[in-house]
Amino acid sequence: MEMLKNLDKIVNLCKARGLIFPGSDIYGGMGNTWDYGPVGVELKNNIKHAWWKRFVQEQSNVYGVDAAILMNPRVWDASGHTASFSDPKMDCKSCKQRFRADNLIEEHSKGKVSAEAMTNEEMEAYIADNKIKCPHCGNFNWSPIRQFKLMFETSRGTVEGEKDVVYLRPETAQGEFVNFLNVQRSMRAKVPFSIAQIGKAFRNEITPGNFIFRTIEFEQMELQNFCKEDDAMALYDTYKQKALQFVLDLGFKPDHFRFHDHEKLAHYAKAACDIQYLFPIGWEELNGIHHRSTWDLSRHQEYSGKPMTYLDPITNEKYIPNVIEYSIGADRLTLAVLCEAYDEETLENGETRVVMHFHPAIAPFKVAVLPLQKNLSDKAKEVYAMLSKEFRCEYDEAGSIGKRYRREDEIGTPFCVTIDFDTLENNTVTIRDRDTMEQIRLSIDELIPYIDKRIKFN
Ligand code: ATP
What we know:
Layout: H1 2-16, E1 20-22, E2 34-36, H2 38-57, E3 62-65, H3 74-79, H4 81-84, E4 86-91, E5 98-100, H5 101-108, H6 120-129, E6 146-149, E7 152-156, E8 164-168, H7 173-177, H8 180-186, E9 193-202, E10 217-227, H9 229-249, E11 257-261, E12 271-279, E13 282-291, H10 295-304, E14 310-311, E15 318-319, E16 322-329, H11 330-341, E17 342-346, E18 352-356, E19 367-371, H12 377-388, E20 393-395, H13 401-410, E21 415-419, H14 421-426, E22 428-433, E23 439-443, H15 444-454
Helix pairs in contact: 2-11, 5-6
The structure holds adenosine-5'-triphosphate.
Adenosine-5'-triphosphate binds at residues 171, 203, 205, 214-215, 218, 220, 285-288, 327-329, 331-332.
């Protein structure tokens, strides 16, 4: 219960401090949608930037793309989504609420029973044997399981009166696969190489979202690694480690993660694993790493009629590469970052401070400039103008200095620069560290290199 309470506190803080608001708030919201506010958009952009830096900028042979969200519907036939991208749903015939059958089982057994490998018949039998009741109205009055389509449909009319169904992509992956040949040829890429993308995906999720853990519109950060069959398993292991190292380098505690190997693999997959994070709602998937064999490219070859082969320039061998996929939700990682960073500290004077211990590289604002009194604001604005050329900064002159520090702590600003009367005399300022609350005096000229050094993500 204590853990769940923390999630509520985080949701409230996010709303009050401009990080994340309920979607369409003035209309009473809309289930499983959220809007990032002025502070949250900075945090999420920084997270995406740190990911791109680590996986695209710092690695060789990784090529970025930004593919269209709406794709030729044949793509979803090839990927198998039109045939089978659905969840097993049951309706409560008494209160008409809809639930995922696998979730009902897992929640009822408090996570002890996994429904991952169960058939629909097995799930129905388990629910009947254990008399699992509707979590909403408490009745036991279920419809049979039906598969509920997760893809959002829309339509486009290219010819008047005619409408074609198109889908909002449920994953970014296909944007990388359909560009395999374009990227390989235009960049003269040699296998092994990877295509990376950050972009929106849409899923008609009906289960409670738990804030931004599960939303109907979300962003994925993803890498498809194309390699030779013989190298695929080693690459899969490498990506498990790289994915873990990335989050550890963002300052997460190692014991908040565990690997979860999938019990049931898709028929084409050779291996699949999630990294789970200890969210306030329990251990849940943060990202996935999948050994997808030649499935994706073979299917696109079959459906598009274009050979998805690679000709090795040295051996002259022609083959369809294997794929190792690494995919992580930007919003789910943002939630993990918020949960990990949130802290309530009791200070020496007995007061409590709420502080977000974000890694400085992803903190929404790097530095806040605070004049001790209003009549120092000209000098403070000068310092702000100088710093904001380099960093995303805040300027705040409202309220006592203590209150202003607290406000910055709550949004995780790593440094506060205070302008006082000595600043006018000798061009020095105090700079306060968010985590230790220690203050040192620096000359204004030293500020940029001092901050720059401390906010690096390597
Ligand atoms: P889950 O089992 O939680 O539904 P999944 O296995 O369907 O996730 P993938 O299709 O592998 O997820 O997507 C890769 C990543 O995208 C996930 O690890 C997660 O971080 C993120 N993700 C997937 N679905 C959602 C969603 N509805 N809302 C937010 N993030 C999501």
